[in-house]
Amino acid sequence: MNTRRQFLKTASSSLLMSLVWKETKEIRLPLAFSTLGCPKWEWKKILDFAAQHGFAAIELRGLEGNLDLPSHPVFAADRIEQTKREIHASNLKIACVSSSANLYMEDPVKRAKELADARRFIDLAAALGSPCVRVFGGKEESDKSPAPDAATKARVAAGLRELGKYAATRMVTVVIESHDHFTSSATLRDVLSQADSEHVGLLWDAYHTFADGQEDPELTVGQLGKWIRHTHLKDSAGNGEKYVLTGRGTIPIERQISALHAIAYKGFFCFEWEKLWHPELADPEIAIADFAHVIGDCLGNARACGL
Predict the structure, then answer these.
(1) pLDDT tens digit string along 56-65?
(2) DSSP string over 11-43
(3) Is residue 244 situated within a structural domain?
(4) How far apart are CA 78 and CA 98, in angstroms?
(5) pTM for the whole thing?
(6) Is 302 exposed, middle or buried (0-12, 13-18, 19+ CB in 10 A)?
(7) C-alpha dihedral, 177 to 181 to 186 to 188, nearest 10°
(8) Tell me: the pLDDT tens digits for 56-93?
(9) How far is CA 301 from the centre of its chain?
């Protein structure tokens, strides 16, 4: 039997979702998808597919298997103006330019390389008019501790602060993703508070804070909402061991959307389908189109879409 507190929580969530449905009935959520989900698609297909399925933006996480985006030919100095025209003609924006930079490293040489790489991505984001560049806190593979220690958090915060200063002059925000060691609200709040920069924020990977951090979305957003600039949404079955199409698993995507709506989140709702890392997943033509339908039309409720 539900306790009174559980009943009130469920009732409040249901009421909030009904308000979300009412307010988004005529205004579609601004959807995006990460190119991590379509690693074999050419640039033109990415733009065409996004436009045809009602997406407002794309997140750049590699193109045609090349994760070093600044080196890709479509972003070369003699090509980037045409690339920008193609994005504009497709009525799209670049939601985020996602790097692989990790900020936990202590070794000065390795750390300098990661920061320099992040700056290259910041420059690309600025050239494309993208508001965000993603970085990781990260951790050593050998590190089996449940959370980063104080020294690691301080290094990550210092890296964010340094990159935020660089990004500020380019009208870009550096966002740390809730991932790896950095999935708990307490850890991320410590790091973001120490970074103390208007040009540093959070990429809320709502999957990881729930599945790995064991946090309800309402708690995460309540603790970190003021820093959230971008999101990743995805679903899984069981205890997170298998990714599934949106709304068919156990991740509370409806509640995640509702929690963002409650803080008047203005960013994109981005689908991260990890096809590059998991080739066995459904093809992007299926999964990305499905996300547009389930999130765009039914706010994450696959049953409401008849699925």
Answers:
(1) 999 999 999 9
(2) HHHHHHHHHHHHHTSSS---EEEEGGG-TT--H
(3) yes
(4) 22
(5) 0.91
(6) buried
(7) -30
(8) 999 999 999 999 999 999 999 999 999 999 999 999 99
(9) 20
Residue 243 DSSP SS3: strand
Give the type of residue at 225.
Answer: G
CA distance 174 to 163: 7
pLDDT digits (tens, 9 = 90+) for 248-278: 999 999 999 999 999 999 999 999 999 999 9
| 71 in any annotated domain | yes
Q: How many CB atoms lie within 10 A of CB 79?
A: 12
Task: Pull the structure tokens for residue 302.
Answer: 């696959």
Decide if 8 is inside a domain: no
Query: Domain tally for the chain?
Result: 1
Pairing between strand 132-136 and 173-177?
A: parallel
CA–CA separation, 235 vs 279, rounded Å?
16
Say which residue the tokens 């991260």 belong to. 272
Query: Kindly report the CA angle at 56 between 20 and 85, in degrees rounded to 5?
Result: 160
Contact status, residue 38 vs residue 65, Cβ threshold 8 Å: no
DSSP 3-state assignment of 177? strand
Q: CA geometry: angle at 263 spanning 237 and 168, to 5°?
A: 100
Residue 2: inside a domain: no
The domain of 239 spans 29-305
- Give the relative orientation of helices 185-195 and 217-224 as an angle to the nearest 10 degrees: 10
Structure tokens, 98: 């996602």
Q: How far is residue 159's CA from residue 112's CA, in Å, rounded to a whole number? A: 10
Residue in the block written with tokens 């992007």: 284
Residue linked to tokens 């709702």: 269
The encoded tokens of residue 30 equal 């601004």
Smallest Cα–Cα separation from 204: which of 225, 173, 181? 225
* CATH code at position 114: 3.20.20.150
AA identity, residue 285: E
